[in-house]
Amino acid sequence: MAGLADRTDSDKSSAMTNFEALIFDLDGVLADTVDYHFAAWQRIADILDVPFDRAMMNRFRGRQRRDCLLELAGEDLACDAAELDRLMVLKDSYYLEDLQRMTRDDLLPGVWSFIQAATAAQLKLAVASSSMSAIPVLERTGILPYMDVVADGSTVSRSKPAPDIFVWAAGALRTRPVHTIVFEDSSAGVEAARVAGMGVVGVGNQNLTQGAHLHIPNFEHITVSELLESMARAVR
After folding, report:
1. Res. 218 pLDDT band, cuts 50 70 90
2. Whether residue 200 sits in one domain with residue 170
3. How far apart are CA 80 and CA 75, in angstroms?
4. Higher-confidence residue: 7 or 99?
5. How many separate helices (H) and strands (E) can be counted in the chain?
6. Residue 105 catalytic?
7. Catalytic annotation on 27?
8. Which among 56, 194, 198, 201 is most buried, taking Cβ atoms within 10 Å?
9. What percent of the chain stands above pLDDT 90?
10. Residue 136 maps to which CATH number?
11. Residue 182 and residue 197: Cα distance in Å, rounded?
């Protein structure tokens, strides 16, 4: 799929002002799942008797479970595939157990209205998350019906910062990368979207999304039209 690297500067500017699809990361962008993930990882860290804190949790943003677990436990665990698989399944079970308490109230500020407005504007919508539990989160928060495509941790083999999951989602939406805006809250996600040749909006902590074309604290104080106009200016 052609990316920005194959186009002249004028071609890039013209193409990227004609946005037709939005791709959202999930955790920390649409839904406030950080505490759910933190609690599950903390239980795994307790089993392994290793330290775990919020700084490490921030490094886990946008990455697949296996990579996170290897950072948590050390590379020695890579030699024990059975134990690695067991702990990944256990982490998911802890997380899914806590997700039973999740509701639409766990959506981040402004998300519900923004998703509805984007749908009304006939934009194509997708979620591209490294999480293996994307579908349950979308179901419990009530936004699954608004998504045309969902890509999760099982969709591609290479995790962010590789661009694969965004390229796959754009292909499933039948839209070109230059017509696509990605919303991310992690440096790995921003890098992945930029490599894919897409416009990128950093959501939340700006220190974690350096390199994004635009930053917003959340979706509460921006409309779909304002976002498209701002991105059209930002990518020129």
Report:
1. very high
2. yes
3. 10
4. 99
5. 10, 6
6. no
7. yes
8. 198
9. 72
10. 3.40.50.1000
11. 10
Predicted pLDDT of residue 188: 92
How many structural domains is the chain composed of? 2
Strand partners, 215: 202
Catalytic residue among 11, 25, 35, 85: 25
Burial 175-203 (b: 16+ CB within 10 A, else e): bbbbbbbbbbbbbbbbbbbbbbbbbbbbb
Q: Specify whether the CB–CB gap between 222 and 233 falls below 8 A.
A: no
Let me know: does 165 contact 189? Beta carbons within 8 Å.
Answer: no
Q: What is the structure's pLDDT at 1? A: 36
d(CA 154, CA 123): 25
Q: What is the tens place of the pLDDT at every residue in 160-191?
A: 999 999 999 999 999 999 999 999 999 999 99
Structure-token pair, residue 59:
């490094």
pTM of the full structure: 0.82
Instruction: State which residues form the domain around 62.
Output: 34-99
* Cα separation, 121 vs 224, whole angstroms: 8
- The CATH number linked to 70 is 1.10.150
Structure tokens at 4: 């920005």
Cα gap 225→126, rounded to integer Å: 18
Residue 34 predicted with pLDDT over 70: yes
H/E stretch holding 128: strand 124-128
* Category of 204 on φ-ψ map: left (φ > 0), alpha (ψ -120 to 50) or beta: left
pLDDT for residue 141 is more than 70: yes
**What is the model's pLDDT at position 159?**
87
Do β-strands 149-151 and 214-216 pair in parallel, antiparallel, or remain unpaired?
A: unpaired
Identify the residue with better confidence: 2 or 118: 118
Q: How far apart are CA 77 and CA 96, in angstroms?
A: 24
